[in-house]
Every structure is written in structure tokens, then in C-alpha cells.
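Sat 14:20. Reprocessing the chain from the morning session after the first attempt stalled halfway. Input below, unchanged.
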Amino acid sequence: MPRGPMMQRGMQAMPKIRKGTVTRLMKYVFEGYKAYWIIVALCIAASSISGVIANTYLQELIDDCIIPGVQNGMDSVAKDLLKILVTMGSIYVVGVIASFVYTRLGAIITQGTLKRFRVDMFHKMESLPIKYFDTHAHGDIMSTYTNDTDALRQMIGQSLPQTFQSLISMIAIFVMMIYYSLWMTLFVIIVICVMFYIVKVVGGGSAKYMMSQQRSLATAEGYIEEMVNGQKVVKVFNHEEEGKAKFVELNNKLFDDSSKANRYGNILMPILNNIGNIMYVLLAVFGGLLLLYKAMNVGLQGVNVISIGVIVYFLSIARQMAMMIGQTSMQVNMVAMGLAGAGRIFELLDEEPEADNGYVMLVNAVKNPDGTLTESAERTGQWAWKHYHKATDTTTYVELKGNIEMFEVDFGYTPDKIVLHDVSINAKAGEKIAFVGATGAGKTTITNLINRFYDIQDGKIRYDGINVNKIKKADLRRSLGMVLQDVNLFTGTVADNIRYGKLDATQEELEAAAKLAGAHDFITRLPDGYNTMLTNNGSELSQGQRQLISIARAALEDPPVMILDEATSSIDTRTEAIVQRGMDNLMKGRTVFVIAHRLSTVRNSDMILVLDHGRIIERGTHEELLAMKGTYYKLYTGAFELE
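Finished this time. C-alpha cells:
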């Protein structure tokens, strides 16, 4: 893990649904699929209305066919009965076809939207500074790609269509109910209002805890990811019980939030179902009374239209409406989770990208007879800094040599805590500069400033005489190679991992880099040689072999400046000798910054800098520092030990 501020395991405040989140989400959902959405909306409307219209034929079926058929014989109404049944069947078929179409198109819209979200998130992630990954749990970030996008999938693919379908159906049902009986409609409205009130009270509580559940889930997954990566350390220190206790704590928090969220959601449907059943019974009684009033010629306005068919129709659509309200209320959970997920996704997308105001570019160049440089469209092996001067409207080309200078640099990961103080370094092209000091002295921090993983608070850093703030970060880092203590190998072949330093490298260039690093011999002994597949960060290889591949990768990139950050500290002495030979080959003719705990690896450095608490306290060659009989002398002779 890169060094820097301590990671905060996703304990930030629970994200709130910020103003504009819904509008922004809808823009994502509709953009690029407007025609599809129009078709989906029309099909949902057709499916909803067809179900309502088909139900209206229940009244005709009972009043015009079944009752007369019972009284006068079924032969007298057979023709009308067949006509009604065929009509109802045809309408239902239209609804089925419409449902099939909007379901298929909905799947395309949903997956297309999620694809766009994932692409945008990954592009944003690649643009973020190292500081972001130093201060955010990796499992928390992964949760955004998995849990939050899945919550969006359910919301877009299920909740939105069902809610829209229920809305259209309820409007159509209300229109038909009013058409048949105002009194029975008013009765249904009263019961529906009670149901909506319950949905508001219970659904609101569910939404609040759903957002908390998403955060707790991300935190738990971040911890799991950390523990999986650190299992060797856990077992070495017998930390299983402590690890389980911490997970139980996080899991209990997730359980509490999930229980509260689902407690509201799970009690909602039974309540609504029971209210729907009560409404069904009361509506039947109320309809029976109206039918009785009609038979008694009470004269109540609107009673004359009441019939057994109308009552049966009302019972059917009332139950249908109760089911729709219940189903829609269940989508409250999905909507809450979807909005919480959208909030976390937009939180990532709104992170400030890595600032880059540089304008000096690294280009291929050719040297003219007079010694000046000219830009070349082809790879020449000669590099130059293309520097445009706005004041004079001229462009100059400065040869890339690898001179690195730092002038009185101050830096802190946070403005209120400076960790480097007044650091000055003059590394000339081809020199080897070594950093020595205890853990936390600032060695790695200095190299992170050279490649601008972080920007300094005060002072200047120049590269070939150019302020690094003026150089585009991508071009700056292209000129720098790094071999780190923690090797990262990607899933793919050995060749793919070495070629990561130069994607268009030929097989000959790749093998030449491996030979330079001392990796060629062991690679050829692998089952498939350079085509051997590596997985799980190259767990099939030893630490030394993985480090040699890392060195070969840097050698293939062939940068003029190389940073070696304790590249041999985690391997045995015998393997170190092999790796050291590879690094010695890699360092020839380059400006090299070496960080090492083993002082034997820095003896031949042109300059050794001894750091303590962010300050350079000694500098000089190996012999000069020994002659000083200061801190370096005590470290070398064993009077002090690096911690």
C-alpha cells in the first residue's frame, strides 16, 4: 500500500441524498435511450390499461350473460358470452405482448445505464490522485462497483417500471370506478388514503435505514478485503480471535441497520394485505347495502346503476388496487437503496481529479548538426522536453538527461503537519543517490514528490532545469521508472506483465529486458515460459522472481531516472544477490534514487543522504560519511540500528 496518511476504514458520515441527485440520476437513465423509454412507457401504459379494460367486461359478463342465462337459459346468451370472452382474451393478449416488449427493452436500458456508470466510475478512479487511495478503504471503493450498482440495477430495472405501471393502472381504475359508482369509489378512496398514510410512515423509516445499511455493508466488505489480503500476518501473530471480534462488531452494526430497514419493509406488506382484505369485505357489504337500497327504491342518487356485476367488478379492481399499492410500497426499499447507491456513486464521481496544470511535454527528438533538437514523429531513442513559452510565442527543446534538483522543499500530507523540512538535493544525470534513515524519516515521501504523487507546500523541484509543476504529469512519470518493495503483478502472462512498461514492445525487446534484469533464465524454466499465466498477484512465483519481473518491466520502459524503493528488503540474502545484479544493470547510465535499509546496497552511491524526522542531517559519499563519525557511521558500525 502506498505510504501516506492512515487509511480511514469507510467511517465517514453516512451519505445524504444531496439536492439534485434524483435529477442527475434520471439524466443518466434517460440519456441515450430516449426512444427506448418512449416505447417502454407506451408498452407499460398499454399493459396497465389493457388489464383495467379487460376487467370492465366482468360487469357485462355477469349482468348481460350469467344472470340472464340463469333466468332464461344459456342458449339465449351464448353468442354474447362468446363475444365477451373473445374480447377479454384479445385485450389480455395485447397486455402480454406489451409486457414482453417493455421487459426486454427495460433489460437493455438497465444494463446499458450500468455499463455507463461503471465506465465513468473507472475513468474517474484512474484520474484520482494517490492521496484518494491512501485515505479510502479499497473494499469501500469496490463496494461502490458492486453493491451500489446492484442497488441501482434493481431500482432502474424493477422499481421504476413497476411504479409507473401501478400509477397508470390506478389512474385508469379510478376513472372506471367513478364511471360505474361514485359512492363505492368514495368508499375505496377513504381506505386507499389510510393505506397511503401507512406507506408514508413505514416507508420513510425504511428509507432512512436503507442508506445506513449501504454504508455498513461497504465498511464490512472493506474489512473483509483487508483481512483476506493480510491472512499471513493474522496467522503469524495469532490474531484470529481479535479479527473475528472486530468482524463481529462490524457485522452486528450491519445486522442492526439491515434489521431496522427490513423491519419496516417486511411489516408493510402484511399490514396492507390485511387492510386490503378488510376493504374487500367492507366493500362487499357496502355494495350489498346499495343494492338493497336500489331494490327498496330509496332514491339515493347513483344507486340505480348498482348491479351485481358492478359490485363484482369493484371487488375485483379494489383487490387489484390494494395489491398494486402493496407492490409499489415494497419498491420503497429498492428506491431508497438505489438512491443511497446513486449518492455513493456520485460521491466518487464528484471527487476532485488529480490537478495537472503542466504544459511541458516529453517528445521524441532528433539532434541537428548544430546540436539543437527537433521534434520527431517517430521513435528515435532520443527524448526532449517540449517547452512552449507563451510570453515570446516560441518553443524550445531541452534534452532529457535526468538532472533532478530539489530546493528547500517543505511538505506535509496535511497542511498542519509538515513531514519534510528544508530538503535540498542535487542529483546530476547518471548519479546514484541513496536515502538512509529510520522508518518514517521521509525517504519514500521524497520520491513521491519527484513523480508528483503529492505536491509540495514550499520550495521547488526542477527536472533538467524545468520546474516539475510545468511538466505534464503523464510525461513526467513516463520519464521515471519505479521498482517498489511491494510488487504488483496483474492477471495475465509473464510477457504481459513485463510488457506493462512498454505495451508495443517486441518479443526481442521483452527478452532483452528480462536478460538485463536477470529474469530470463527462470522465466524459460516456467511451464509455458513467457506465456505462463500469473494470477493472484503472481502467487505462483517466489518473492525474488516477482521482483525480477518488476525490474524487467522497468528495464523495458528504459527511463532515464529510476527510483528503487527498498526493492530487496523482503527477500533473502542469496536472492538479493541475484536481484542486485539485475538492479545494477538497470542503474547503468541512469539517475537513480535508492531507498534501502541494508547499508551494504548503498556503499557505491555517489551521494548518501541520511534523514531523520523529515530533515537531511548528513550527506556525502560512503567514505565521507564514515569519516564524519556521525549517525551514518554509527549505523554502519552497528552502534545504531534502523527501526
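The chain has four domains: 19-179+334-352, 182-305, 361-399, 404-636.
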